[in-house]
Design goal:
Largest sheet: 5 strands, mixed
Helix content: 40-55%
Number of strands: 7
Number of domains: 4
Radius of gyration: 30 Å
Shape: globular
Strand content: 5-15%
Strand order of the largest sheet: 3-2-1-4-5
Order of helices and strands: EEEHEHEHHHHHHHHHHHHEEHHHHH
Amino acid sequence: MEGGKQISMEVVNPHAAGVDVGSRSHWVAVGQREQDVREFGVFNQDLFEMADWLKEQQVKTIAMESTGIYWQNLYAVLISKGFHVILCNGKFTKNIKGKKTDIKDCQWIQKLHSLGLLSSSFLPDGKTEQLRTYCRQRANLLHLAAATSKKMQKNLSLLNLRLDVVVNDICGLTGLNIIRAICNGETSPEKLASLRHGNCRKSEAEIARALQTNGRKDYLFALGQELDTYGHLQRKISECDKMIEDMLNEIIDNDENKKQHIIEPKTYKRINKNTPKDIDLNLKSYQMFEGTDLLAIEGVSYSTVLAIMSEVGIEGIRKFPTAKHFTSWLRLAPNNKISGGKVLSSKVPKGSNRLKIALRNAANAIGNLKESTPLRDFFHRINFRKGRVSAISATARKLAVIIWNMVVKGVQYINPGGYLFLDQKRKLGMVKRIQKQIAKFELTADDLQLIKA
């Protein structure tokens, strides 16, 4: 219309293609006409044929959905052929209302990408991705081992062997020694109790009272099977630890900037049974993040830094321009929905990933700290107003901001109170109690001097 406003959408990527990824075939569109769409198989030869056809069509950039795991091989082939590939979240490529087909989907993705309306999802670098595979496999094995230990405890209870009452962990040193002896045919409670480790709190007499079995052979057979499975899983976990150590050494040894950093061991950081035993994660994380000591943050454990190294890595964190982008990607930032100037909702978006879970576990550990620290005090303020669930999310978000600032900006984390060992905590507590007594009875310096005399 003459004199009216015209709105046109500029083509940002003129040589763009869209791929609808499937489990048995991939549909590719290089335009909006019928002849601009082709179907390719999922075998390696088909993927290279797709890349050759895209080069013939003078395509330079490609957009695809992150559908399951089916995109990974295609993504690797297209990247190796020199294409610029955008991996998109499926919720950003939903088609308009109407009939849905694979042809329409790939054309819709191609149109959105041509107009520059699609943003790329986060992907770690190659080395970090390999480390992530090893760490995720290890985490899966740990879950299986935990399920196996529960089955062992169930079979022990059915045998009337209440080992879980007298030891904290049936898969600890005392528990496993006793279970092995039971599976080998030992029935004497006294002999079983003599296998007690020196650090066990219960006496041999107390343990012997809990180990009087009813002798059911079927439950004993099941217990032996679960013990073998548990041992097999522990061996597999050790193999994963070796691969993780080799991968960390490969990343660090090939970078002189990482290799030069040295840090003193942290004797106060607890190492639980699920922490890799033969890897100095304190040193490796310090080198991996080029002199940034993430373990200086209270509540951050070795498993937390391992999750950070394997899920994003130092280069991955640097991809986020601000800490807000990082927390938003983690789905730890509130998603404000405003209409008419009124906040309709400010809930944290749904969804989770392994790094978010690791940060929430660290936040929960901060909430359980006895001594006062800035993060612990923040946790309890939120806990008092909104409850523990909100406090964990808020503290996890604050941890993510601190980690981003430490890695990207080089800001060192300083706990004003520092870390105190047990004897130092007792001394500090005694001093505070004495100060309260002095204030209560209004004692002066002369009174204290008189007491001293």
